[in-house]
Amino acid sequence: MRRSSPQKDIEQGGGRRAIDPIDRNIDPLPSNSDNSSSFQSATTYYSSPPNTTNIGVGSVVPLQKILTTILLDTLYGTLLALLFLTLLFTLDYHSFISIGSTKAFQQVGQELLSDPEVITAIESSLSLKLLPLSHYQGIQMEIDSNHELIQSTTTLSKYTQQLTALHDEIASIQSEHESVTKNINDKLGLDQWCGDCKGAWGKCDGRVEYLRSTYGNSVLMSKVDIMKEGLCKKG
Fold first, then answer.
1. What single string gives the DSSP state of each residue in the chain?
2. What is the pLDDT of residues 175-198, one digit of tens each?
């Protein structure tokens, strides 16, 4: 009986498998007439399906899974690198650590943003107007002040309208009061009242005020009572 070689590759349909002669699951290749049938059986058993990669004896890993693993590892590594760089820049910005390249990058950026030509190019490309922070804050304060002034003007105009309406109402009431007073004076004869005339107590208006403040008499009834006595009349 012939022993197989230390390693023999058997190919069929693009598949390849290394045969270890120590593997007891594989019988030695017979000689003469059984040689072709045994070779066909071995190649059928060890053939790999398309789009697969063989790892070790008896194991098959899809090529798609290998590519997916490589892509995921690359993606995770890139994300971790970005996070690490962001952490370094943050610590450098808050002066926890000092990185010379970061300081140089910041200085170059500040110089570029301070260049009038660069600012003009950025403004023309973005259709915006870039302003210094102090200038922007001044404009914002002016806008807020004008807004408050508009609100104050609106409130003042509202109060002015209300005051005008009250003046009109007072004028109407005063006119009505004068009309009613005139009618009462005509009916009660108070149009003949002489306030500057004098009696035993002094002036007539003083007498009426005394009666009002001392006894709570109404001005109208006090005048009527005095005139009934024939006092404080004109002419």
1. -PPPPS-EEEEETTEEEEE-TT-TTSPPPPPGGGHHHHHHHHHHHHPPPTTEEE-STT-EEEHHHHHHHHHHHHHHHHHHHHHHHHHHHHHHHTTSS--HHHHHHHHHHHHHHH-HHHHHHHHHHHT-----HHHHHHHHHHHHHHHHHHHHHHHHHHHHHHHHHHHHHHHHHHHHHHHHHHHHHHHHTGGGB-TT-EETTEEHHHHHHHHHHHH---HHHHHHHHHHTT-SB--
2. 888 888 888 878 888 888 888 888
